[in-house]
Design brief:
It contains nine helices and nine strands. It is α/β, with parallel strands linked by helices. Strands 3-2-1-7-8-9 form a six-stranded parallel β-sheet, sandwiched between helices. A three-stranded antiparallel β-sheet has the order 5-4-6, covered by helices on one side. The mean pLDDT is 93. Its EC number is 2.3.1.286.
Length: 230
């Protein structure tokens, strides 16, 4: 086995205290998705959207990588082949755990984006509605987050990695959101062995060769040790 491609979703960060879309009482439960995670919501009320992501950025800064994040960093460091990590998460817990190669298909809280000229730069901890772009000076700064209705980042590169994977692992994803929900089918099409880690099987769970049920903090360290021992 030469190449492992891994997809992570909100489930792995939930164990570090960062709420998923569906968690009761979390940040997402206080807002409608169409108000804070769509271009239309930003156009209607940029201050609401910017303040929402400021809160998410502050929450993520207080969180720490958990045993699941650390296990994947261990795999990347010790596996003799290639490990590619694709995440739907916008936090930086994978990087803080020690991973050097992380593809953020839904963007990152650490980034700012100009809605006018597409320039990107590091986001301050607190953004304000109407912040100016350092490139074009227009007051059109927004969080560098892929919202519903927008195209995820790096899709061509992601599909290229999936086509070359010997193993594909999906961790903490619901199987609700495409294109990520289709990654397992793509990897299988090219002959990859597939494994899912979740608290319960996802909507695409039937497409996996192996399903490991339980918290990622418990299941991932065991799996990584298995891979490195094989």
């Amino acid at each position: 086995m030469n190449k492992i491609v891994i997809l992570t979703g909100a489930g792995i960060s939930a164990e570090s205290g960062l709420g998923t879309f569906r968690a009761e009482g979390g940040l997402w439960a206080q807002h409608k998705i169409e108000d804070v995670a769509t271009p239309e919501g930003f156009a209607r009320d940029p201050r609401l959207v910017v303040d929402f992501y400021n809160a998410r950025r502050a929450q993520a800064a207080e969180a720490s990588p958990n045993a699941g994040h650390l296990a994947l960093a261990k795999l990347e460091a010790a596996f003799p082949g290639e490990v590619v990590l694709i995440t739907q998460n916008v936090d930086d817990l994978h990087e803080r755990a020690g991973m050097s190669r992380v593809m953020h298909m839904h963007g990152a809280l650490s980034g700012a984006l100009c809605a006018a000229c597409d320039h990107r730069w590091p986001a301050p901890m607190v953004m304000a509605a109407g912040d100016s772009c350092p490139n074009c000076q227009r007051p059109s700064a927004r969080p560098d987050i892929v919202w519903f209705g927008e195209m995820p980042y790096d899709m061509d590169e992601i599909f290229e990695h999936l086509s070359g994977a010997d193993m594909f692992a999906s961790i903490g994803t619901s199987g609700n959101v495409y294109p990520a929900a289709g990654f397992v089918a793509e990897a299988r099409r090219f002959g990859a062995r597939t494994v899912e880690f979740n608290l319960e099987p996802s909507l695409v769970g039937s497409q996996f060769d192996d399903i490991r049920i339980g918290p990622a903090t418990q299941t991932l360290p065991v799996w990584v040790d298995e891979i490195l021992a094989s």
